[in-house]
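Please predict the structure of the following assembly.
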Amino acid sequence: MSTILHVHMTERSVQQLDVDSRLEKHGGRSFIARYLLDHIDPRCNALGPKNILILAPGLLAGLPLSSTGRLSIGAKSPLTGGIKEANVGGTPGDKLGRLGIKAIVVSGKAPEGIYILHLSKDGAELVDSGEMAKLGTYETTARLLEKYGGHCGVLVIGPAGEMGLRGAGISATEDLENVPGRMAARGGLGAVMGSKGLKAVVVDDAGTSAPAVCDEELFRQASRRFAKELIESPKTGKEGSMHRFGTVAIMGPVNDIGALPTRNFSRGQFEGVANINAEKLRETILERGGKIGQRCMPGCVIQCSNIYVDEQGVPIVSTLQYETLALMGSNLEIDNLDEIAMLNRMCNDFGVDSIEMGAALGVAMEAGLAEFGDGEGARKLLEEIGKGSVLGRMLGNGAETTGRILGMERTPVARGQAFPGYDPRALKGNGVTYATSAMGADHTAGNAIGTRNTKDPLDPEGTGDLSRGLQRVAAMLDMTGLCLFARPPIVADPDLMVQLLNGRYGWGWTVEDLVEAEDELLRMEREFNVMAGFTPAHDRLPEIFYREPLPPTEGVFDVTDEEMASTLKDL
Amino acid sequence: MSTILHVHMTERSVQQLDVDSRLEKHGGRSFIARYLLDHIDPRCNALGPKNILILAPGLLAGLPLSSTGRLSIGAKSPLTGGIKEANVGGTPGDKLGRLGIKAIVVSGKAPEGIYILHLSKDGAELVDSGEMAKLGTYETTARLLEKYGGHCGVLVIGPAGEMGLRGAGISATEDLENVPGRMAARGGLGAVMGSKGLKAVVVDDAGTSAPAVCDEELFRQASRRFAKELIESPKTGKEGSMHRFGTVAIMGPVNDIGALPTRNFSRGQFEGVANINAEKLRETILERGGKIGQRCMPGCVIQCSNIYVDEQGVPIVSTLQYETLALMGSNLEIDNLDEIAMLNRMCNDFGVDSIEMGAALGVAMEAGLAEFGDGEGARKLLEEIGKGSVLGRMLGNGAETTGRILGMERTPVARGQAFPGYDPRALKGNGVTYATSAMGADHTAGNAIGTRNTKDPLDPEGTGDLSRGLQRVAAMLDMTGLCLFARPPIVADPDLMVQLLNGRYGWGWTVEDLVEAEDELLRMEREFNVMAGFTPAHDRLPEIFYREPLPPTEGVFDVTDEEMASTLKDL
């Protein structure tokens, strides 16, 4: 990964430059933090010409290695006002790695029009794409694949991103169906891409090969061990819940501990859970001839994805995941998979985050704009986003804006971003992550759900330490491009990651170097946010979560300010 | 002023307590700052039960003294997120002074329903007022005056405050017509009052007299000198522009220097200015049998108010002022006084700030929701506030929310609050005040327009010092209850204010003590905001004002960060 692609949207020019030494050891989320700290004023308007959008694959991108092709996308977030990285599976990250591109840096703002960035081994060019303006992500992707070839990886924004809505994400094609089934969803990065005048990135890796590795023997041994451990694990192997069910495997446990967002985060268990849980989803898909156990990126041995189909076997959406099922299912009291799948498809097509939209719809339903449980009502509300009406723009700007306009106190957000599918009153470690992570409320920034059997989810004591440890793991994943599902072998033995990195780059790192890199990433993001105007006063959840008990566990969020402050203090 | 009235809305109880020594020397805005710092968590939800609403007359309230009856109202602002004070002329401040009430402290939140607080020399009580829920301020005020007597002073919120809209203010009756013609408009304090479940405060001062003064001779001499200087001044006397024209006297000069907000702050001079300026307003009112040169509060010798009437001589609104004429006139390119007066009346009736609404409408017009210059279009948009529609709630939440939803970069706000009628690119001292004052963008927090002849309004050098001096004067006015128009004799000789205060209270203050009290006020507000999460990164205007030149002077806002940081550093 030897080059950085500089895309100057104001001049509509593209430049390939070598990677300077300051950036060499940074990848993915870590590259984003270093680059933004060095190059933008953290006080800038996130949707203005001074923000920079970065697409950076992880350090292990492009290699014949399972589960390491996630692509980090980052910028100053128009949703949180702080630094943001959202990463996405699918094919573009891997293909960028094969093209030897360490990062795409998109700066400025096109004076008018909207463009496609086309990349191949022969170079990069910006192509006017006025005819695709305001098209949905499905149609845009289909047209681009038809034009450039079905082997390409494609990243696109929908009308939401073009309208500058703060809930807009960036969609990526996945390996199982060539559709925009994955999204770098959180933090409004689609709106940043739209503000630049960039509609899509097409990554054509024809004629490329995997990047060379420095120490072939070390890399081969480590990668084999990594794949073997994933395949043989009872969780990630073929008989494991991740392969069989995908992310929704977690729904039962989350409901059991009383943390499943229900009726706009007013309850922690959902009566209709059996209609939308892991077993029901698998059974429905298999009965109808859909697909289970698919991979989103090449080489993945876990294969957690699915293709959800209607009664006639026609695909509705891929891949239907836990966060969407929680935020657009239980949170809206919709216990019908077909309805949730349709809502998910609409979000994908408009190019908006289904977590943010589920939370916004929950707030809107509580305010009376539709009834809880009314799938058709939810669809009608979502349709407004496509129309660009004031109502649609309100929802598309996310839960906080929706709560602000409608005057609803129970608005589940931290740092401007909607809670994912874990109520922090029943899983307190997550509340600490939501409040302290530079990423805001995010299910991948340091999620405590995996610790529920070893640490009482209701106990506020020690949640600072817990969250810090989880945030470090998240940092490691996001700089290397590793999927969260593939973390167990690395968490069990961090030296395995060190071997992979040393094999690839010959850095001679130790485990301490890896930990320091994680901490450095968290420090850089914190530093950016301090310069953007964040203080410990922002490390909070909305007041109502400290006051209102959550049935059935009846706890409030009672993590002390001291515990909260301890989380990232000594990094 | 010996008592503080504690109104506990959760229990719906009222308690009168003596003033403790810590609060003794604080009045108005200064009382608010001290009390909020001591009693609330600055991180609290401004519309939640932990915020406290304070109504505090200035230190000179209730006395037979010109122009000193302004009432300060304050709380943590739901609009800015920081501490906020907005003060209002009219009759209630004076009457509270006569009742010996130093402050009304409203805490908690009524579990349901909406209440009237009735005050008289016989005590205070909360009265259920469910039948007035969602009524406009004109009708509510009329009913209350009918019930309690036309001699009462009344403070009310309209439907906007009850809906929790962040542009909502608190209206006060004025002396000239017993209608809600004055408003503590800025910062969303009406929404705070609504969140508590308080619809109105009725101040019945029957049977009271002016508070006793400590040193009668000193007070008499100082107050005579003060009145004499006001009467004899070429500006505030009977031949002066303030009496003859009121606040709109400033429109010509603001237009001349190119700082008059025009077409959503995209220009600084308005072609139609002659149709809405001071001369035109005076001429129109006099021709139609309206009134000019009225007083809003008892005893005022300046008498700057007016009653604007329609062609049949029927009152539309009192008092039609500069800020409204700028924000709803030139800023919307509406050059018709009748149309502006109608928009003003609608704002008054809903109980929303006409500055904030004018700015929000400007943004909405630029986004295409109505045409610039279209008074009927503007009226239709404002009507939505009364309906409580999503569109109305967006506008009612102010310019920043409107710009956020509609995706408009040119959104004229600082710290979440709309700019008043002075574009900061052509009056740079005001930009410094907008950005650095705890009050946010506010025409009374330190307005540089009066310095235009002695300091080049386009010159960024020295604007920190300039703004600091003006912010100190504003602090003095707002703690004593003095009207901005009556400041010249005090600014010329601060010892005159010291004599008034020593006459009233016997404190034995010097001018240095007065200056220290001003600085202490600014420090307290700054301290509150730091605890609420503000940093120097927030001392900024929106990025576009640094980039986009303003015709015809073609300047950008080029005050350096260092100059900005110098403003309140050494207080």
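The mean pLDDT of chain A is 97. Chain A touches chain B at residues 42-45, 47-48, 50, 163-166, 369, 390-391, 393-394, 397, 401, 404-407, 409, 530-535, 537-538, 540, 542-544 (CB under 8 Å).
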